[in-house]
Amino acid sequence: MKRERKAIGKTLYSWNAFDADIKKLAQKIKRLNQSFSAVWGPARGGLPIAVCLSHALDIPLAKRPADTSILIVDDIADTGRTLRIYAKKNFTIATIFYHKQCCYAPSVWLHEKGDQWIVFPWEKK
Prior knowledge:
Blueprint: E1 5-7, E2 10-12, H1 15-30, E3 38-40, H2 46-57, E4 70-77, H3 84-88, E5 93-98, E6 108-112, E7 117-119
Parallel strand pairs: 2-7, 3-4, 4-5, 5-6
Antiparallel strand pairs: 1-2
């Protein structure tokens, strides 16, 4: 994974890294051999991923996660608080980053998060 720069205690995650990771994430999701009716991601971090994966996987963007045929995506599974309800209801969850302290492991993830705070390109720096 390409990370542009490191600030003290922070990793700045670039749009270029994001674009490359969306392609990798889409490939991993396709290898699940599951059919998804739509994709949904919580605001803020999940929205850019959901939109990009909607295009990459050619599935609609959901307005809300109504049933388990919807793929749930987010930027990171850190503590697990944001996505815990979906994990308990057996949704398929995909994230770019996963921290081993999380209360569950997403179905698909790309990078293990270390101790550095990750600043995504859609966040204020």
